[in-house]
Amino acid sequence: MIFGQVTVGDALGCVLAHSLAVGHQRLRKGMVLDADHLTALSAAGYDQITVARLEDGDAHEDAAATQLAQALCPDPDSA
């Protein structure tokens, strides 16, 4: 995982590292940024943001948590 600041224009598909206020909404830490998010960030005056770029073999934190939970408890109904 590569973690650091990038320009908003280079953040497509990156994972937002910190929650940010954007107009009347809030972009939450951990969300994968799409074109609409980048447009909103630019309109709100953000030039650079801190993101994580996943590398080959990396998993988003939500997917990793799901994989771990399934490995620890493959049949949650029997727990």
Topology:
Layout: E1 2-7, E2 15-16, E3 20-22, E4 25-27, H1 35-43, E5 48-53, H2 61-72
Antiparallel strand pairs: 1-5, 2-5, 3-4
Short description:
The chain has helices at 35-43, 61-72, and strands at 2-7, 15-16, 20-22, 25-27, 48-53. It is of the alpha+beta class and 79 residues long.
Spatial order of strands in the largest sheet: 1-5-2
Q: What is the number of helical segments per DSSP (H or I, 4+ residues)?
A: 2
What is the level-2 CATH architecture name?
Answer: Alpha-Beta Complex
Strand content: 25-35%
CATH topology: Molybdopterin biosynthesis moea protein, domain 2
Distance between the termini: 33 Å
What's the number of extended β-strand segments? 5
